[in-house]
Amino acid sequence: MYCNPKSILITGASNGIGKALALHYAAPGITLFISGRDQARLDDVANACRNTGATVSGWIGDVTDEAGIRDWIISCDDQRPLNLVIANAGVALGATDVHGLHKAAVDSININVNGVFNTIHPALEIMSLRRPYPVRHAQVALMSSIMGYAGMARSPAYSSSKATIKHYGQALRGALRGMGIGVSVICPGYVSSAITAKNTSTMPFLISAEKAADIIANGLARDKPRITFPWQVMLIARLVINLPGLLVDKLNKPWGVPKLEDQPGHNAPD
Questions:
Q1: What is the H or E stretch that residue 159 is in?
Q2: What is an example of a Pfam family matching this protein (predicted)?
Q3: For residue 97, which of 162, 148, 147, 156 has the smallest C-alpha distance?
Q4: 269 CB neighbour count, 10 Å cutoff
Q5: Buried-exposed string 54-79: b where 16+ CB fall within 10 A, e elsewhere
Q6: Which of 66, 141, 173, 229 is least crowded, fewest Cβ atoms below 10 Å from its Cβ?
């Protein structure tokens, strides 16, 4: 039912997974609507997709701009009814001291959670009004992360924001099932991108953005509820969420990033 989308919208398409997905879907007869915050990079992606025969329209903007992205999505659907909307844009924010925790958490929720809401809700409103009913050829995908499976000490803000998206997507799938609208949650492990390029810690089972796009598109074509990859980190994640709390406490340490208690000014008094 969702295996062959012709009109596809992707946020955060100027780099990483979003860029790889745009290039994966680009082909004659395909209309792509892509967004990003960097004009030059988005133009490069758009031109590469056009070279394959796709029709491409770009929007420079921020997913936190609720009114702006709503207007853009409505205009995209007016041009060609959207079959697939991928809410991909997001950030990986952390804090190196206690005073940075609040900003990292608020900004993560604003971008990774509210940004997804700002993307999928206008699309769902439009899709739900189509007839005949239940609707056909309508699907949304929410970008979570393998770190959304559990609260991670190395990235409290990021893992919590992605957990919200994971749970919301799962709930939304059930809520919309009778409408005929497909909902999938994407939970990647480490994927080569601008975000991981800044990461100085170990990134086990790192895969290319192109490989990630293949896996995601495959899962979306089969309307999978949750697309988690690679399989090695999926196995680890499933083990972790079923461990007793005492054992989780021993394992859940901020590996690969500065420990908050080790920062100047936060040492315990003698």
A1: helix 156-176
A2: adh_short
A3: 156
A4: 3
A5: bbbbbbebbbeebebbbebbeebbee
A6: 66
Rounded Cα gap, residues 149 and 80, in angstroms = 36
Where is pLDDT greater, at 155 or 170?
170
> Amino acid identity of 248?
V
Q: Taking the CB of residue 207, how many other CB atoms lie within 10 A of it? A: 18
Which pLDDT value is given to residue 270? 43
Least confident of 31-40, 154-163, 226-235, 258-267: 258-267
Total-model pTM: 0.88
Confidence check: pLDDT of 177 > 80: yes
Domains and their CATH numbers in the chain: 7-262 (3.40.50.720)
Q: The tokens 């399989």 sit on which residue?
A: 231
Listing from the earlier edge strand, what are the strands of the sheet with 182-188?
A: 55-60, 31-36, 7-10, 84-87, 139-143, 182-188, 226-229
pLDDT at position 124 over 50: yes
The string of DSSP codes covering 46-79 is HHHHHTTT-EEEEEE--TT-HHHHHHHHHHHHHH
Cis preceding linkage at 264, omega within 30: no
